[in-house]
Design brief:
Layout: H1 2-20, H2 23-29, H3 33-41, H4 45-56, H5 61-65, H6 68-79, H7 84-91, H8 111-121
Length: 123
């Protein structure tokens, strides 16, 4: 319960800070006001899930975040996941270092995006 209150207070503070920023400040950060508000509202575990799943496709977090448009798209798809239970069970597997056949990750809404980016980068 405390976690919920802490998240609510953090979100409130973040939204206040974003609203106080100028459009130029946001542009310097590489986001629009709408994108910044959407990113602030994401559950804390979404970026971690996205970067862990991308790692399985041979992508580093730097490669994934290099194109802000792609980064925002994969975060949005992950946040709207309709198979979160399967994702959580997969992420809870015992051996995170064991190779995974990414073709079997059909539950992941970002599988095609990760695959395309990995191929484009030669990963």
């Amino acid at each position: 319960m405390i976690e919920g209150f802490l998240r609510m207070f953090r979100l409130s503070r973040d939204l206040h800070d974003i609203k106080a920023m100028s459009d130029a400040d946001l542009a310097d950060m590489g986001v629009t006001r709408t994108e910044a508000l959407q990113l602030a509202a994401l559950p804390d575990d979404v970026p971690a899930r996205v970067t862990e799943m991308a790692r399985l496709f041979g992508l580093t977090s730097s490669e994934l975040m290099a194109d802000r448009r792609v980064w925002h798209e994969v975060l949005g798809r992950c946040n709207g996941c309709t198979d979160l239970g399967t994702c959580h069970r997969f992420m809870a597997r015992e051996d995170h270092d064991e190779p995974v056949d990414t073709a079997t990750l059909t539950f992941c809404a970002n599988r095609a995006a990760f695959d395309e980016l990995a191929h484009a980068l030669g990963a």
